[in-house]
Amino acid sequence: MLAGKRVVIFTDNQAVQSCLIRCKSANLHMDYIVRYVCRQEERLSTMAWIERVPSQSNPSDSLSREVVESLSDMKRTRVDLLTMWKKCLEEVRDVTLYTGEWRDDVG
Question: What is the count of structural domains for the chain?
Fold first, then answer.
């Protein structure tokens, strides 16, 4: 569905926004996640814009903090975090995004 499209990624976290724009993080675990996101952007040939949204303006913020009755009948997609984390770890072995910086000892 996203292949070849322009995508806007919203986050309410300034550090996440910065890491996604740079396609790297000084935090090893965050770097795994950022590399996975960037790899998917490459794989799908998408053009992403990362935008920060303050929590008070973020419609999904309440979803992460409480059950919202008005959305109870909407389709949900469960995400297996362990599977996603394993995919992020696989990115460490993918040299496509390798910058040669501090990641030399990762593996």
Answer: 1
